[in-house]
Amino acid sequence: MARIRTKGGLIVAASAFAAAVASAWEIEHREVQHADLEESHLRVERLASLRDDEAALRSIEASLRQEWGDFALLGFERIEDMAAEAGNTVFVVVERGREGETPRAIVQTLLADVHGDAEELARLYPSFADLISRESWARSREKGGDTAVLLQITTLGPSERGAGTGSLLRSAVLNILDRSIAHALTTTPVDGKASAEVDLADPTTYTPAMRFHARGGAEPALLLPGYKGAPGKGGAHGADIVVMRYSRNQAGHWPQPPNMKLHSMGPLQLRASLALRQLQRRTRRIKRFRPPSLPRRPRL
Fold first, then answer.
1. Average pLDDT for the chain
2. To 10 degrees, what angle do helices 267-288 and 6-28 make?
3. What does pTM read for this prediction?
4. Is residue 163 helix, strand or coil?
5. Contact of 240 with 189, CB cutoff 8 Å
6. DSSP designation for 101
């Protein structure tokens, strides 16, 4: 009969128990981190995962400032601050290639506990500036909510407009959201016509942006003239906005793009993944770096 040393057996048993507990904790805290489109090189992921990619951040910031003026970074002074404090609810479409990752579109969101009620959102946040205040961001980050507010959707470059990238991003983000989030509201600018010309009950009066959301399953909920402050403050967009509302269907699902694969990770797995990506980016930068050639030594 084989002998088992009690001390060694206890150590092995304790190690196995600790590993099982850690594994269970990791599984319990898993959440969807990104979505891949099969048969393409596009990935939808959180801005937080791009925090160390300076080239990507600079590209995103330039496009946001051009599109949204004073509201580009949603009250943050630097895009690094936005990535650090709001990066878990800001999502980016990234095209992956041999030379790295290229951002193609971005949607900036925050969480609010308003039960999908547009009027409650307007009551709690009387202006867009109130909605994106530091207090609002802190509440979104620390307490969450049952409603995601899609603040601004931006395609990063003329080639992305009309290519379906914005639709992909919107639909993917809805599916990445935590299961506790039952609704989504937008703050869609009323562009191309006066808000008085828009009848929420008449689809023929919708703006192109409203039709974009309607095709994705949203319904117009509330018109808010002047919500974004003085005209011109919002860059290429006006101050009037319309709130569009998305809701899960009876089965609890959002519309899902075809061939989309969701990827969930636990905290430890996510940390390891981010470390690997950081190493890959540094390796690519080193490969691209070419030291200056030294002058040739004259022959004697």
1. 81
2. 80
3. 0.75
4. coil
5. yes
6. E
